[in-house]
Each structure stands twice: as structure tokens, then as C-alpha cells.
Amino acid sequence: MTSKNILVLGGTGFVGRAVCERLVERNGGGGGRITVPTRRLVHGDRVRLLPTVEVVPADVHDESRLRGLLAGQDAVVNLVAILHGSEAAFRHVHVDLPRKLASACAAAGVRRLVHVSALGVGPAAPSNYLRSKTEGEAVLKAAGLDLTLLRPSVIFGAEDKFLNVFAQLQQFAPVMPLGGSDARFQPVWVEDVASAVVRCLDQPDSIGQTIECAGPQPFTLSELVRLAGRWSGAERPQIPLPGALARLQALALEMLPGEPLMSRDNVASMSVPNVASGTLPGLQSLGIVPTALESVAPGYLGDAFGRARLNRLRRGAGR
Fold it and tell me: By three-state DSSP, how is residue 242 classified?
């Protein structure tokens, strides 16, 4: 039976919004509802406008509230994740929440779960991010749910905080000091990841599988930064930083206010390839042909920064 009532944890985020759009398209006029909890209702403004999507105020880390959210649901999608924080913060989000979710699913009688993890996980993973993701997977596997795990590489799209950040930096910086320049990624389009989530819900044979979500081509970080600069019209020379300097740079960025552009934990994560292993099924197993980076990113990077340059020229002309 097709799952119609879906609880989407993390549905207001970059990937979550794409997943909600795909679920609405998939449900069509066939009924069903998509429930998106959020602690700050303003974050749900984008998905609230989608038909059949209900944005509700809730802290998903509250176990009793989580059980209530699962009542009447056919399936749940977990997209909740963080990229920065302390070891305790990573455990809270990537381990404790899956444990609470597994318990709440058992109490509510909801068996179907699609959980988004990450490439590079493993018991010997070098970072808090990857180790906590590994443990979160293990918790869910042990829960006896109808589970599908998705492991994406870095995800790109018009609102990503990866290529857009490197493009923006090159609008202002004369050079790019770059730690982890040789780190390898296999960028995957956000729409392909969203499609994978929906197809897993519709394909019972995906239950029990771990599926790697990766684009058609690997790149080094240096290549991705260079392309982001080129496509936004502001390619800058790079200065590769050795390991010790990369960690020092990350430490300095951690000390700035707000979310850091790079952390020491990110640098540790980049020490293992963020590319498909080839030993697990990929997007093709779901009937998805991975979208090439160069067929999407030049458009949104060029448009965004073309508008930014035009606005700067207009402001200059008005002085």
C-alpha cells in the first residue's frame, strides 16, 4: 500500500523543501497529508504554501510530542542533521533523535522510515559528524523498522550552502586559502535526493537497503571552488593549505560569531573520500539518472551573482 500520510522531520530545510515538493507532486489529487514539524513557524513559510502540507509547531526532540506527531502516519522521513557543533551536539541530533524516533515509531505502530545519513560513515570515521551519523544508522538498524538508508555526498542546488558560499567568497577575496583542497566529493543534485526519498517510499524492495546518492562525477574541493568562481564570474587563485594550517584556519573561523564557514570537524571529515563506494546500490537502482553538476550549477550561480553585481552597480551609480 502506498504511504500517503508522511511525517517529514527536517522538512523546512534545504533538502526538506525539495522532498515536500516531490511528495505533493507524488500524492497529486489522491489525498493524504504531509506533516512538517518545526520549532519556529516562520521557517515553514515556504512549505506551508504547498497543498496538503501542514506545518505544526513542535520540538521533535520532545519524545511525547514526537509520539503524538506519529499518530496516524504511514511513514516518516528523517532529514534532521547538523554540520557544526560539539561532540554532544552531534550526538543529540544524529544519535539521540534516531533513538527517540525508533521508540516513538514502535509506540505509534509506524514501521516505514527513510533516513538520510551521509557518505563516509563508518566505525573508524575521523570526525564527530561522521561517527555520530554511523551510530545513528546503527540505532535505527537495530530497531527492527522497515528502514531505508540514503547516504548522499555533498548536495548542491540553488539554495545550497556549499557552492554558493565559495562563489560568494570569491566575489570579495583576492585569493582563496583552501584547506583540504584535495578532498574528494561526488556532488548530488538536491532534486535527485528528493526523488530518491519519494521513490524509496514507493518501492518496497528498497526496505533494508543502503543507497548511495552521488552525482555522475567526482571532484576535488579545489576543482569545485574553481568552478564555483568561474560560473559566478569571479574565479580567484587558490592557496592550498597543509593539514596543520587548514586546522588553524578552521579554528579561527570557529571563533567568529555565527555558524562557521569551516570547522576543525569539517576538516577531519574531508580526510576521507566523500564519493560512492561502488559496493552499494546507487540512484540508478531507483531509476534515477544522476544529474551532472555542470548542467545545473552554472545557471543558479551565474544568475544569483549577476543580480548581485547589478545591484552593486546601481547602488554605486546612486551615490
Answer: coil
Q: Which CATH superfamily is domain 6-156+188-215+275-291 in?
A: NAD(P)-binding Rossmann-like Domain (3.40.50.720)
Q: Average pLDDT in the 167-178 region?
A: 93
More confident residue, 108 or 29: 108
pLDDT at 308: 54
CA distance 227 to 162: 12
156 is written with which cell numbers? 548542491
What is d(CA 117, CA 133) in angstroms, rounded to the nearest whole number? 6
The DSSP code sequence of 272-302 is: S-BS--SSS-BGGGGT--PPPGGGTHHHHHH
Distance between CA 233 and CA 279 in Å, rounded?
A: 38
The answer to whether the beta carbons of residues 249 and 179 sit under 8 Å apart is: yes
Determine which of 19-33, 162-176, 233-247 has the lowest per-residue pLDDT on average: 19-33
pLDDT at 304 over 80: no
Contacts for 57 with CB less than 8 Å, ≥ 6 apart: 37, 38, 39, 41
Closest to 75 (Cα-Cα) out of 40, 32, 43, 119: 32
Residue whose cell numbers read 512549505: 47
Distance CA 135, CA 264 (A): 20
Region 173-182: mean pLDDT is 95
Q: Which residues contact 204 (CB under 8 A, 6 or more apart)?
A: none
Task: Determine which helix (DSSP H) or strand (DSSP E) holds 24, and give its type and residue range.
Answer: helix 14-27
- Give the C-alpha separation, 37 to 270, whole Å: 31
pTM of the model: 0.93
